[in-house]
Design a protein that fits this description.
With 589 residues, the chain is mainly alpha-helical. Helices cover 60% and strands 6% of the residues. It contains 22 helices and nine strands. The strands form two sheets. The protein has a five-stranded parallel sheet, sandwiched between helices. Helix 4 runs antiparallel to helix 16 (343-358), helix 6 crosses helix 17 (367-393) and helix 7 runs antiparallel to helix 8. The protein is elongated. The termini are far apart. 46% of the residues are buried.
């Protein structure tokens, strides 16, 4: 290809990738629903976006390194100590039962239906084990199932990506080892490949751990160091043994998430942006390599495979995983109706299938198009049916608000009690021991752990929160926390107004809506409370009583609407008003 064609092709891939993700965001649908058909159409209509022509032999290594970055990022979310409580048993069962039954059922089905050899069928089955949070997360955010379902499915998706990546790499090497005579030789090749990946990941994690602990560096530089380490180690392992870089990347990510004494930032904006861009580029590129001709004899058999996975394998896995647990019947069936395939399946299929074709594994040329059909079909099926299925099963999260109140001052605890009396499920968090004791003595729910890590980490202790109210007496903390939580919490984040426009180091400059009318700052609320003012609730029946300040309106459906500096909600019939009453002894009007 000429230089001009390369420029046009690379530019088109980047624009189509980001444009598809933007369109999906506007339509509030999973990005895969747009990326896959756009990439397929672009590849069918033009040769300019064919990555194999643009990049030649470097396409497969680049895909492998890109997947290594994705798997490392997924591994960073696997803080296994946070998987606890009633979800542990279900999630662990979903992982090993899902892997086992998916591999067995898909492989046995693919041999006669897709006309594959057993080795190619096992490779396809191992690829289809993965689901992934990049697909499950947006679907669950749209459906909004119960908190327990959200937690179980997010944990399964986060854990199955690296598990599937490791399994795919191991099966790939086992399939290639099958070409060599002698069981001992095959086992040796398999063991060496596994050892190279694990050892490379362990060494890389050790070096990275030492650098991040001993060398003082900015967050940007620390991110760059991690990226360089992952790519360097993965590339080195791949150079020693083909595709062992995926194993090393997962090992590094999991090690960095679980090694003691390491304080990785809860938010990684650059890394998150990079991973999002890589996902878009990979899907456009990989979809463009799937030609209409390659799908001609694969679509119907692959759809039959989808039917098996969706209607038989996944429901069976869900029922076995939830057996003898306290998970209700409706939630069990919804777990059985949520297993879309995503980016790791597509990338590993693209990485492994070409080399298996080169080794003349019968049916290997069908792995990529079959994976493409399964991804498209499962994402469309679950994307279109998840909400009505959840509604029919009665597992949707109530529309009622669940606010998180941050702060433990007496007036804030009084406010939380009033919101609870108005029918809301209130959660509180405070840092000081005396504040946490005050919250517990009031009988309120106390969020565990460290606030920012809990809200931004993958363990999701704060799942189900519909908004955050920052009520501490530290204005700069409120301001900084509002900036951090705004991108992590599903609903709005509001904070108390600083006492003056110039008060604090960062508080005046972070923007956002402030709670309550202009005069109700934190010090003023504390002063009034000490003077005897209390937070009360009453049903809306006319104007706000004299001497009272309107703080919140609770709608009949349980939605919490705060009064802010930008808007004051007009109470309607049936609303519950949350008011700050006058101090004790104030004259009645």
């Amino acid at each position: 290809m000429t230089a001009d064609q390369v420029f046009v092709g690379i530019g088109l891939i980047v624009v189509l990738a980001v444009g598809s993700q933007l369109l999906a965001s506007l339509l509030r649908v999973p990005a895969l629903l747009v990326l896959l058909p756009v990439g397929f159409a672009a590849g069918a209509l033009s040769d300019d976006v064919d990555p194999q022509k643009l990049l030649g032999g470097s396409f497969s290594p680049l895909v492998s390194l890109a997947v290594a970055v994705i798997l490392y990022d997924a591994g960073l979310g696997l803080e296994l100590r946070r998987l606890k409580g009633h979800t542990r048993r279900v999630v662990v069962r979903l992982l090993w039962l899902g892997t086992l039954l998916t591999v067995v059922s898909a492989a046995l089905f693919a041999v006669p239906v897709l006309d594959m050899s057993m080795r190619a069928a096992v490779m396809l089955a191992a690829i289809l084990v993965v689901s992934g949070p990049t697909v499950v997360g947006p679907l669950l955010n749209f459906v909004r199932p119960t908190e327990r379902l959200q937690r179980i499915l997010i944990w399964e998706g986060s854990l199955i990506d690296p598990v599937g990546g490791i399994l795919g790499a191991l099966v790939f090497h086992a399939v290639l080892a099958g070409d060599r005579p002698g069981f001992g030789s095959q086992l040796a090749e398999f063991s060496v490949s596994t050892a190279v990946g694990v050892a490379g990941g362990a060494v890389g994690a050790g070096v990275l751990w030492l650098l991040l602990r001993r060398v003082l560096m900015s967050e940007e530089l620390a991110t760059s160091v991690q990226l360089a380490a992952v790519i360097g180690v993965a590339a080195g392992c791949d150079a020693l043994r083909d595709d062992t870089g995926l194993i090393s990347a997962v090992v590094m990510g999991m090690a960095m998430a679980n090694l003691p004494g390491l304080d990785l930032p809860a938010r990684r904006p650059f890394f998150d942006t990079l991973v999002s861009l890589i996902i878009g580029l990979l899907f456009i590129s990989i979809s463009a390599t799937v030609t209409p001709a390659s799908l001609r004899h694969v679509v119907l058999p692959s759809l039959a495979l989808v039917a098996l996975l969706v209607l038989v394998t996944r429901p069976l896995v869900a029922q076995l995983a939830t057996l003898r647990t306290d998970v209700p019947r409706g939630e069990r069936w919804f777990i059985g109706w949520m297993a879309p395939r995503g980016i790791v399946a597509a990338a590993t299929a693209s990485t492994f299938s070409a080399e298996l074709v080169d080794h003349r594994i019968t049916g290997a040329e069908r792995i990529l198009p079959a994976t493409f059909v399964v991804i498209v079909a499962t994402v469309m099926l679950y994307g279109l049916t998840a909400f009505p299925v959840a509604r029919r099963l009665g597992v949707l999260r109530p529309a009622r608000s669940r606010p998180l109140l941050v702060g433990g001052a007496p007036w804030a605890v009084d406010l939380a009690c009033a919101l609870r009396a108005a029918g809301l499920d209130v959660l509180m968090w405070a840092g000081a021991g005396r504040d946490r004791t005050r919250i517990e003595e009031a009988g309120l729910k106390l969020a565990p752990g460290e606030l920012l890590a809990a809200a931004t980490g993958s363990g999701a202790e704060l799942e189900g929160i519909t908004g955050v109210l920052l009520l501490t007496d530290e204005d700069d903390f409120n301001a900084l926390a509002s900036v951090t939580l705004r991108e992590s919490v599903e609903g709005p984040v509001h904070r108390l107004r600083p006492p003056s426009a110039s008060h604090g180091v960062v508080a005046p400059y972070t923007g956002g809506e402030s709670l309550f009318d202009a005069g109700l700052t934190g010090p003023e609320l504390a002063r009034r409370y000490e003077a005897g003012a209390r937070v009360v609730t009453r049903t809306s029946a006319g104007p706000v009583p004299a001497g009272h300040e309107l703080l919140f309106v609770v709608r009949p459906d349980g939605r919490l609407v705060p009064v802010t500096d930008a808007r004051t909600q007009a109470p309607e019939t049936g609303d519950t008003l949350v008011l700050l009453g006058p101090p004790a002894g104030a004259p009645a009007v």
